[in-house]
Amino acid sequence: MLILEARNLKKYYRDRLILSFKNLKIESGDKIGVVGRNGAGKSTLLNILAGNAKEDEGIIYRHCSIAYIKQFSNEDITADGKILKEFKVDKKIDKDNVSGGEYTKLNIAAALSKEGELLLADEPTSNLDYDGIKLLQKKLSNIETFMLISHDRDFMDSLCNKIIEIENGKLVFYEGNYSSYIKQKFRERKSIQNEYDKYISEKSRLQKAITGRENKSKSMKKAPKRMGNSEARLHKRESNEKRKKVEGTAKTIKTRLKKLEVKEKPDKIPEVKFDFSLTDPPRNKVVISGNKICFSYDSNVILNNTDFKIYNGSKTALVGNNGSGKTTLLNLINNHFNPIYAVPKAVIGYFCQRFENLDYNKTLIENVMEDSIQSESSVRTILARLLFFGDDVYKKVCVLSGGERIKVSFAKLFVSKANVLLLDEPTNYLDMQSTEALENIIKTYEGTVLFVSHDNKFINSVADSLMLLKNGQITEFHGNLKEFEEKQELKNNSSNCNMEKSILQMRLTEIISKMSLPNCDKEMLEEEYKSILNQLRHI
């Protein structure tokens, strides 16, 4: 059943056309993921469909009630108490001092309480911890129809049956989940690359053919001086005929070259190369450490006599539930809170999504070059790697989307004198391509990185170590999240095996004791004895 339709819709931002498409239909049962580069118009589309923003042209037919999980909301939170309790924010609703993840949970609870026939969700997993994402995933799996924007690739994979990509204002529709969309995009890109290669090959062949014919025409010999007049006239006539034929062929080839359909060269992402030695990096094995750290907010204990070490060149993920103190710890490290110690040559660069390091009236390139110790060529390479191509670098920061501003902030950090990066939720509000680009940059970055993220795919791709924050204590682990979970599962299985083994051994003792009793059924007991021994051998 059709529940929403948008026809001939156009939306401008100042003089820039953000959206322009003929038709969008949402049917009952559609579970739609919306993807596209930062600034492509994803949030704008949801705001228009929800009625929170007005389209400049076109018409929208809404045949349903709509609930909306907004990316940023200043509205008062009213939500069902049961849902608030499920998300563990029932005691936070009247409090101003909540973490980013707790605030997101409050917005989710408010939207889910409305029970709309169509749910719109703009980055609903941003700042959510692992438990929060799993609970939201469960809630959405029970919702018949939704449209969501998310940077979490695993989350989209598990829920969506359709993908809409926004590119140059147009909507492109794909059947299947995010992984299916990626496979289809890969085939499309391969086809585009093949078409471009064929175009370049044919263009080169025609140009060579034209040059060959022109050279042949020029080399046509004049009549030798010893020839008689009649012979010379005949030779000249034959030469002219041949020359005209060659020139005619060249003209035909030129016409074919002009009519050859031009294929645009696909964007090629450049490799990031800059001189990290300019940051004068430390050579110490451990660059930041904390010893017996204690920190509280009033009666809320965040860190309780705990220790940690951050190793030089490591990529460490700081993992913990919402409200556990991850951002607090980053702030303490950045502010050199005693007894946290950083070695003398450690220069900290901190990303915390408040964009305090950006001048909104300056262009991208001006912002990034302002504190850069790298060359302008290296800066442009970083920006291109973060998907800012050509004249994009001359845009003013004030006209950028939230995700684009995040990428400019990253670029500033990577080319600054910082050699230790603290990143708080770096993938929040980034599009999929930008997230993957950031992954590659961090993996090739020669410095030390400590980051907070709830994007498991990002953690497993980037991290080589973990700091797990729980109940005021920090536990260190060498490896990524997947390796940690596998080790925990192995440990739990081993524990279960030991328990099962103890129970069987106790039963063996009991059987042996019974076998010494008069009038016992020895045959049955011996059979059970053999069976238990067999089970023990297989544990």
Automatic annotation (TrEMBL):
<feature type="domain" description="ABC transporter">
    <location>
        <begin position="288"/>
        <end position="496"/>
    </location>
</feature>
<keyword id="KW-0547">Nucleotide-binding</keyword>
<dbReference type="InterPro" id="IPR050611">
    <property type="entry name" value="ABCF"/>
</dbReference>
<feature type="region of interest" description="Disordered">
    <location>
        <begin position="210"/>
        <end position="250"/>
    </location>
</feature>
<keyword id="KW-0175">Coiled coil</keyword>
<feature type="coiled-coil region">
    <location>
        <begin position="182"/>
        <end position="209"/>
    </location>
</feature>
<feature type="domain" description="ABC transporter">
    <location>
        <begin position="4"/>
        <end position="194"/>
    </location>
</feature>
<dbReference type="Pfam" id="PF00005">
    <property type="entry name" value="ABC_tran"/>
</dbReference>
<feature type="compositionally biased region" description="Basic and acidic residues">
    <location>
        <begin position="237"/>
        <end position="248"/>
    </location>
</feature>
<dbReference type="GO" id="GO:0016887">
    <property type="term" value="F:ATP hydrolysis activity"/>
</dbReference>
<keyword id="KW-0677">Repeat</keyword>
<keyword id="KW-0067">ATP-binding</keyword>
<dbReference type="InterPro" id="IPR003593">
    <property type="entry name" value="AAA+_ATPase"/>
</dbReference>
<dbReference type="InterPro" id="IPR027417">
    <property type="entry name" value="P-loop_NTPase"/>
</dbReference>
<protein>
    <submittedName>
        <fullName>Predicted ABC transporter with duplicated ATPase domain</fullName>
    </submittedName>
</protein>
<dbReference type="InterPro" id="IPR003439">
    <property type="entry name" value="ABC_transporter-like_ATP-bd"/>
</dbReference>
<dbReference type="GO" id="GO:0005524">
    <property type="term" value="F:ATP binding"/>
</dbReference>
